[in-house]
User: Fold this.
Amino acid sequence: MTTLKGEKIYLRALETSDLDFLYLLENDENGWEVSNTTTPFSKHILEQYLDNAHRDIYDVKQLRLVICTIIKEETIGFVDLFDFDPKHSRAGVGIIIFSEENKGKGYAFEALQLINQYAVKHLNIHQLYANITEDNQQSIKLFEKAGYTESGIKKDWIKSGKNYKNELFYQLIHDVH
Assistant:
């Protein structure tokens, strides 16, 4: 298995042809709570983002890869490395599978495995971390299955309507020598 190809899915760089999928995803208000988004994105802004997506992770401190199915060659989501810190060998990881019909099929788990292998092999990552609201049981199960452990809680961290949600901090630490 190569670093970016698994049994069911593969990860690839963003392409200009991803504009419509990116537009739908970034403007889906259901995801705004966890992405700290409060306003929609225009296609023009997303085109500019895609024009710069080739920039090196060491420069922009983030990397977004597209999750595609092998059999159908279908774009189903994204996996991101963010807040990349080469000095301390760590990065945050986020993942989204866009449609309900593609959830629960193991795609997200495989994407986490692939991004983990990539991060260790190519970026010399010592740890990956994820921030998950405590009510997001699907993500908690996913990250725990992928070997992440809960190591902290940020109380009242995410404002949701008139209420606040706690955010759990998960880490996957590698013994890199």
